Amino acid sequence: MKKFKTAKESKVSITELMLPAHSNFGGKVHGGYILNLMDQIAFACASKHSRGYCVTASVNRVDFLNPIEVGELVTLKASINYTGRTSMVVGVRVESENITTGEKKHCNSSYFTMVAKDADGKSLVVPGLLVEDKQGIRRFARSIRRKEQAFKRSNTFESSNFKMEDFLDTLESENIKIAL
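-> structure tokens emitted (180 positions)
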């Protein structure tokens, strides 16, 4: 197995026509269907990089920026942004294209943390990331920052660490009524 691999070596993309079966009650493509496709492409990319079976450990924020219409082509692109010892952060970008006008829209981007597993379900060491450009360094550094923020966030709101007093001022301008 290679010690380091480039993001280009494991980059994956898929394009799929959105059908009526993919739509929600509002007539747009169902967000859950897109999330499923995103998870699949993140798996494919991480598995290609690690040469192992991968599982989804976490998904970092998914904001649906633009609706996807039935009849549009949806393209998902995935690449490795970060590698740890056994985990990888896969950046996933979703774009739609109106096949009659050619108009393309960025629909969402997200970051999937994937962990490689061996045949016994134990975490598998993954190849590191060989970065060849400034964009790759930016993505790697951003992934480190996201990881740090997630850790801080999870500790702050654990029951044993949470200090209500620290948040009461913030809540005053929100749509909440506190009756303790």
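Helices lie at 7-10, 31-50, 134-156, 168-171.
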